[in-house]
Amino acid sequence: MPRHSISRRVLTSVRRVVIAASAVVVLLATAWVTPAQAVVGVYSRAFVNKRYSSCLWVSDHRGEYPFLRSCASAPNDLAKYWLHEKEANWNGTGHPMWVIQSQAMSTTSCIEAKYNNPNPATTLVTGTCNWAAPLWVSKQFEAFWVKDSDGVGWWVMKSIDAWVNAGQHLCIGAWNSTVVSLVPCNTGSDLQRWKASAAAPVS
Predict the structure, then answer these.
(1) Is residue 39 within 8 Å of residue 85, measured between CB atoms?
(2) Full-model pTM
(3) In angstroms, rounded to a whole number, what is the distance separating the alpha carbons of residues 98 and 129?
């Protein structure tokens, strides 16, 4: 058999191997950067603020403000939430829509934007979990998946209420080491970046 025929066959085989290997690399890379929850469902989560490495807590009284506190505080039931991913592609944005429900409050309660028409919401409170649009968008948050320069991923949570009703981009962020509120969105700010870490459900 001519040498050039053998060379062509070898080259073709090498190309196939390279293409297959490339496909595997792309698949692995995609699996690595995909957030833990990517489909509609309910997940047990604790939210950790990047800037302060503290968790998002609520008190056991509806109508009060969520706050930051050490994740190591015990008992930590009031730092655990049911993350309801209601939509995987809210309004065609490619971002999921979340409702965040406390696991431990004695009344079924969710985090909501406190909206006073015509002013956009600037505070967060715990309220009922009536989340269905269009009346209860205050319970709904658009979740952005952003990454650091080193590839570590974080969530930024934007109030759908403030956007739909006032055209304002307001996100859940820390004012300081304790106070959590709605602030002008800046996906690059560590104050607004959160880990939605898996948490053992409250028994």
Answers:
(1) yes
(2) 0.78
(3) 12
SS3 letters for the chain? CCHHHHHHHHHHHHHHHHHHHHHHHHHHHHHHHCCCCCCCEEEEEEEEECCCCCEEECCCCCCCCCEEECCCCCCCHHHCEEEEEEECCHHHCCCCEEEEEECCCCCCCEEEEEEECCEEEEEEEEECCCCCCCCCHHHCEEEEEEECCCCCEEEEEEEHHHHHHHCCCEEEEECCCCEEEEEECCCCCHHHCEEEEECCCCC
pLDDT digits (tens, 9 = 90+) for 162-173: 898 888 899 999
Tokens (6 digits) for 84: 């309801």
Q: What letter represents residue 195's amino acid?
A: K
The separation between CA 166 and the C-alpha centre of its own chain, rounded to angstroms, equals 22
- pLDDT tens-digit map of 1-28: 444 443 344 334 433 433 333 332 222 2
> Which residues are bridge partners to 183 per DSSP?
171
- Quote the CA–CA distance of 160 and 136 in Å, as a whole number: 10
Distance CA 51, CA 25 (A): 32
